Amino acid sequence: xxxxxxxxxxxxxxxxxxxxxxxxxxxxxxxxxxxxxxxxxxxxxxxxxxxxxxxxxxxxxxxxxxxxxxxxx
Length: 73
Ligand SMILES: [Zn+2]
Prior knowledge:
Elements: E1 9-13, E2 18-22, E3 27-32, E4 35-39, H1 41-67
Antiparallel strand pairs: 1-2, 2-3, 3-4
The site of zinc ion has 6 residues, from loops.
């Protein structure tokens, strides 16, 4: 993966991240501000699954905090 020779094809652009793909590297690049995460497509799929799992589990914890004592950190 040599950034200078990479051919970035933009696949999607959102408010949190932009995703490009380099066919030569077979790598997806997730651009988030100053940070770029490079992953093979299978790695991006695994990340997608884990992110989905985390967001699915999140409401339980948000509700628990809201029901907690006032001022509890
Ligand atoms: Zn490349």
